[in-house]
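Check out a protein:
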Amino acid sequence: MKHIINQDILHIENNIKPSNIVTNEKKHLWFFMIFYTMIISISNWYDARLISLFSFTVSPGALTFPLSFLISDVITEVYGYKNARKCIWVALFFNILFILFGEIITRLPSPSFAIENNNAFDKLLSINAWVVAGSFISYLASEPLNAYLIAKLKIFFKGKYIGIRFVFSTIIAACLDSIIFIGIAFFTILNFENLIKLMFTVWLIKSVIEIIGLPFSIRLAIWLKNNENLDIFDNHTNFNFFNLNNVYEASDNHYHKGEV
Protein backbone atom coordinates (compact mmCIF):
# COMPACT_ATOMS: atom_id res chain seq x y z
CA MET A 1 0.00 0.00 0.00
CA LYS A 2 2.79 2.39 0.95
CA HIS A 3 4.57 1.54 -2.28
CA ILE A 4 1.45 2.33 -4.32
CA ILE A 5 0.98 5.69 -2.54
CA ASN A 6 4.63 6.62 -3.18
CA GLN A 7 4.21 5.74 -6.85
CA ASP A 8 1.10 7.90 -7.07
CA ILE A 9 2.91 10.86 -5.46
CA LEU A 10 5.85 10.42 -7.82
CA HIS A 11 3.48 10.28 -10.80
CA ILE A 12 1.77 13.52 -9.70
CA GLU A 13 5.08 15.31 -9.14
CA ASN A 14 6.36 14.26 -12.55
CA ASN A 15 3.24 15.58 -14.25
CA ILE A 16 3.09 18.94 -12.50
CA LYS A 17 4.14 21.58 -14.99
CA PRO A 18 5.92 24.68 -13.68
CA SER A 19 3.78 27.77 -13.67
CA ASN A 20 4.21 29.97 -16.71
CA ILE A 21 3.12 33.06 -14.80
CA VAL A 22 5.35 35.53 -12.99
CA THR A 23 4.14 34.95 -9.43
CA ASN A 24 7.02 36.30 -7.34
CA GLU A 25 5.86 38.80 -4.74
CA LYS A 26 6.43 42.39 -5.81
CA LYS A 27 7.67 43.76 -2.52
CA HIS A 28 7.96 47.43 -3.42
CA LEU A 29 5.40 48.05 -6.17
CA TRP A 30 2.69 49.08 -3.69
CA PHE A 31 4.86 51.93 -2.38
CA PHE A 32 5.57 53.34 -5.83
CA MET A 33 1.89 53.14 -6.74
CA ILE A 34 1.02 55.24 -3.68
CA PHE A 35 3.89 57.65 -4.34
CA TYR A 36 2.83 58.04 -7.98
CA THR A 37 -0.82 58.60 -7.03
CA MET A 38 0.07 61.30 -4.50
CA ILE A 39 2.35 63.11 -6.96
CA ILE A 40 -0.41 63.20 -9.57
CA SER A 41 -3.00 64.50 -7.07
CA ILE A 42 -0.66 67.19 -5.77
CA SER A 43 0.33 68.26 -9.28
CA ASN A 44 -3.21 68.60 -10.60
CA TRP A 45 -4.58 70.30 -7.49
CA TYR A 46 -2.02 73.12 -7.32
CA ASP A 47 -1.54 73.72 -11.04
CA ALA A 48 -3.94 76.66 -11.06
CA ARG A 49 -1.51 78.69 -8.94
CA LEU A 50 1.27 80.12 -11.14
CA ILE A 51 4.64 80.73 -9.51
CA SER A 52 7.71 82.78 -10.42
CA LEU A 53 10.91 80.73 -10.51
CA PHE A 54 14.24 82.21 -11.60
CA SER A 55 12.38 84.92 -13.55
CA PHE A 56 10.25 82.26 -15.26
CA THR A 57 6.50 82.00 -14.76
CA VAL A 58 5.50 78.35 -14.40
CA SER A 59 2.78 76.15 -12.94
CA PRO A 60 3.66 74.08 -9.84
CA GLY A 61 3.17 70.96 -11.93
CA ALA A 62 6.44 71.78 -13.66
CA LEU A 63 8.16 70.87 -10.39
CA THR A 64 6.11 67.83 -9.40
CA PHE A 65 5.13 66.19 -12.68
CA PRO A 66 8.74 65.24 -13.54
CA LEU A 67 8.63 63.05 -10.43
CA SER A 68 5.60 61.24 -11.86
CA PHE A 69 7.49 60.59 -15.09
CA LEU A 70 10.51 59.41 -13.10
CA ILE A 71 8.44 56.98 -11.02
CA SER A 72 6.56 55.80 -14.12
CA ASP A 73 9.90 55.20 -15.85
CA VAL A 74 11.10 53.03 -12.99
CA ILE A 75 7.83 51.09 -12.70
CA THR A 76 7.74 50.37 -16.43
CA GLU A 77 11.44 49.47 -16.55
CA VAL A 78 11.23 47.00 -13.67
CA TYR A 79 7.62 45.82 -13.42
CA GLY A 80 6.49 46.33 -17.02
CA TYR A 81 4.04 48.48 -18.95
CA LYS A 82 1.02 46.59 -17.60
CA ASN A 83 1.77 47.59 -14.02
CA ALA A 84 2.58 51.17 -15.05
CA ARG A 85 -0.79 51.28 -16.84
CA LYS A 86 -2.46 50.03 -13.68
CA CYS A 87 -0.77 52.81 -11.67
CA ILE A 88 -2.00 55.41 -14.15
CA TRP A 89 -5.60 54.22 -13.78
CA VAL A 90 -5.36 54.03 -9.98
CA ALA A 91 -3.95 57.56 -9.77
CA LEU A 92 -6.70 58.85 -12.08
CA PHE A 93 -9.41 57.23 -9.97
CA PHE A 94 -8.17 58.69 -6.68
CA ASN A 95 -7.56 62.10 -8.23
CA ILE A 96 -11.16 62.20 -9.44
CA LEU A 97 -12.34 61.01 -6.02
CA PHE A 98 -10.27 63.73 -4.33
CA ILE A 99 -11.77 66.48 -6.49
CA LEU A 100 -15.34 65.19 -6.21
CA PHE A 101 -15.13 64.99 -2.43
CA GLY A 102 -13.86 68.57 -2.33
CA GLU A 103 -16.79 69.66 -4.49
CA ILE A 104 -19.26 67.89 -2.20
CA ILE A 105 -18.03 69.27 1.11
CA THR A 106 -17.86 72.86 -0.18
CA ARG A 107 -21.56 72.65 -1.07
CA LEU A 108 -22.74 71.33 2.28
CA PRO A 109 -24.28 73.92 4.67
CA SER A 110 -22.07 75.61 7.26
CA PRO A 111 -22.90 76.15 10.94
CA SER A 112 -23.51 79.82 11.72
CA PHE A 113 -20.36 80.23 13.83
CA ALA A 114 -18.09 78.87 11.04
CA ILE A 115 -19.44 80.64 7.95
CA GLU A 116 -16.52 83.03 7.61
CA ASN A 117 -13.87 80.34 7.99
CA ASN A 118 -15.75 77.94 5.72
CA ASN A 119 -16.08 80.58 3.01
CA ALA A 120 -12.30 81.02 3.05
CA PHE A 121 -11.87 77.28 2.92
CA ASP A 122 -14.36 76.95 0.04
CA LYS A 123 -12.53 79.64 -1.90
CA LEU A 124 -9.28 77.79 -1.36
CA LEU A 125 -10.79 74.55 -2.69
CA SER A 126 -12.62 76.17 -5.58
CA ILE A 127 -11.48 74.75 -8.90
CA ASN A 128 -11.16 76.20 -12.34
CA ALA A 129 -12.96 74.04 -14.89
CA TRP A 130 -10.33 74.75 -17.56
CA VAL A 131 -7.51 73.76 -15.23
CA VAL A 132 -9.25 70.49 -14.33
CA ALA A 133 -9.97 69.71 -17.99
CA GLY A 134 -6.39 70.50 -18.96
CA SER A 135 -5.04 68.35 -16.13
CA PHE A 136 -7.06 65.28 -16.98
CA ILE A 137 -6.63 65.48 -20.76
CA SER A 138 -2.88 66.11 -20.57
CA TYR A 139 -2.52 63.33 -17.99
CA LEU A 140 -4.36 60.77 -20.12
CA ALA A 141 -2.25 61.73 -23.12
CA SER A 142 1.24 62.06 -21.64
CA GLU A 143 1.45 59.42 -18.91
CA PRO A 144 0.46 56.43 -21.09
CA LEU A 145 2.76 57.75 -23.83
CA ASN A 146 5.70 57.93 -21.42
CA ALA A 147 5.18 54.34 -20.23
CA TYR A 148 4.65 53.12 -23.80
CA LEU A 149 7.90 54.71 -24.99
CA ILE A 150 9.86 53.21 -22.10
CA ALA A 151 8.50 49.73 -22.81
CA LYS A 152 9.06 49.91 -26.58
CA LEU A 153 12.52 51.48 -26.35
CA LYS A 154 13.55 48.82 -23.84
CA ILE A 155 12.68 46.13 -26.39
CA PHE A 156 14.35 48.03 -29.24
CA PHE A 157 17.61 48.56 -27.34
CA LYS A 158 17.42 45.11 -25.68
CA GLY A 159 17.45 46.63 -22.21
CA LYS A 160 20.53 48.79 -22.79
CA TYR A 161 20.95 52.58 -22.61
CA ILE A 162 18.53 53.00 -19.73
CA GLY A 163 19.48 56.66 -19.19
CA ILE A 164 18.89 57.58 -22.83
CA ARG A 165 15.54 55.81 -22.78
CA PHE A 166 14.42 57.56 -19.60
CA VAL A 167 15.37 61.02 -20.86
CA PHE A 168 13.96 60.57 -24.37
CA SER A 169 10.58 59.30 -23.17
CA THR A 170 10.25 62.14 -20.65
CA ILE A 171 11.21 64.83 -23.15
CA ILE A 172 8.52 63.64 -25.58
CA ALA A 173 5.82 63.02 -22.95
CA ALA A 174 6.56 66.25 -21.06
CA CYS A 175 6.33 68.21 -24.29
CA LEU A 176 2.90 66.78 -25.03
CA ASP A 177 1.79 67.32 -21.43
CA SER A 178 2.91 70.96 -21.41
CA ILE A 179 1.26 71.80 -24.73
CA ILE A 180 -2.09 70.25 -23.81
CA PHE A 181 -2.28 71.44 -20.21
CA ILE A 182 -1.09 75.01 -20.74
CA GLY A 183 -3.11 75.32 -23.95
CA ILE A 184 -6.35 74.32 -22.21
CA ALA A 185 -5.85 75.72 -18.69
CA PHE A 186 -4.55 79.19 -19.52
CA PHE A 187 -5.82 80.08 -22.98
CA THR A 188 -8.47 82.36 -21.44
CA ILE A 189 -5.98 84.44 -19.43
CA LEU A 190 -2.80 84.48 -21.56
CA ASN A 191 -2.20 85.69 -25.09
CA PHE A 192 -0.68 83.39 -27.70
CA GLU A 193 2.90 84.59 -27.20
CA ASN A 194 2.79 84.08 -23.45
CA LEU A 195 1.14 80.70 -23.90
CA ILE A 196 4.03 79.53 -26.09
CA LYS A 197 6.58 80.92 -23.64
CA LEU A 198 4.89 79.18 -20.71
CA MET A 199 4.66 75.89 -22.63
CA PHE A 200 8.35 76.00 -23.49
CA THR A 201 9.41 77.03 -19.99
CA VAL A 202 7.37 74.30 -18.29
CA TRP A 203 8.63 71.67 -20.76
CA LEU A 204 12.24 72.79 -20.27
CA ILE A 205 12.00 72.65 -16.46
CA LYS A 206 10.42 69.19 -16.55
CA SER A 207 13.14 67.91 -18.87
CA VAL A 208 15.94 69.41 -16.78
CA ILE A 209 14.53 67.91 -13.57
CA GLU A 210 14.39 64.50 -15.28
CA ILE A 211 18.03 64.81 -16.33
CA ILE A 212 19.10 65.95 -12.86
CA GLY A 213 17.24 63.00 -11.31
CA LEU A 214 18.69 60.51 -13.79
CA PRO A 215 21.47 59.13 -11.52
CA PHE A 216 18.84 58.45 -8.86
CA SER A 217 16.26 56.87 -11.20
CA ILE A 218 18.83 54.59 -12.86
CA ARG A 219 20.22 53.39 -9.53
CA LEU A 220 16.70 52.89 -8.18
CA ALA A 221 15.69 50.79 -11.20
CA ILE A 222 18.82 48.62 -10.93
CA TRP A 223 18.34 48.18 -7.18
CA LEU A 224 14.71 47.15 -7.65
CA LYS A 225 15.59 44.64 -10.36
CA ASN A 226 18.12 42.97 -8.10
CA ASN A 227 15.87 43.16 -5.05
CA GLU A 228 12.77 41.85 -6.85
CA ASN A 229 14.62 39.45 -9.20
CA LEU A 230 12.56 41.05 -11.92
CA ASP A 231 13.26 42.68 -15.26
CA ILE A 232 10.11 42.66 -17.39
CA PHE A 233 10.16 42.98 -21.18
CA ASP A 234 6.82 43.74 -22.84
CA ASN A 235 7.36 41.54 -25.88
CA HIS A 236 3.88 40.01 -25.66
CA THR A 237 2.01 42.95 -24.14
CA ASN A 238 -1.29 44.29 -25.43
CA PHE A 239 -0.67 48.04 -25.25
CA ASN A 240 -4.36 48.93 -25.36
CA PHE A 241 -4.62 51.46 -22.54
CA PHE A 242 -8.08 50.18 -21.60
CA ASN A 243 -6.86 46.62 -21.17
CA LEU A 244 -6.38 46.20 -17.41
CA ASN A 245 -4.62 42.82 -17.51
CA ASN A 246 -1.33 43.04 -15.59
CA VAL A 247 -0.26 39.36 -15.67
CA TYR A 248 3.10 38.44 -17.16
CA GLU A 249 4.43 35.11 -18.29
CA ALA A 250 7.68 33.79 -16.87
CA SER A 251 9.32 34.25 -20.28
CA ASP A 252 8.74 38.02 -20.01
CA ASN A 253 11.07 38.21 -17.01
CA HIS A 254 14.60 38.59 -18.39
CA TYR A 255 16.29 39.08 -15.05
CA HIS A 256 19.73 37.56 -14.72
CA LYS A 257 21.73 38.30 -11.61
CA GLY A 258 24.73 40.50 -12.30
CA GLU A 259 23.56 41.56 -15.76
CA VAL A 260 21.65 44.73 -14.88
The domain at 18-252 is CATH 1.10.1760 (Arp2/3 complex 21 kDa subunit ARPC3).
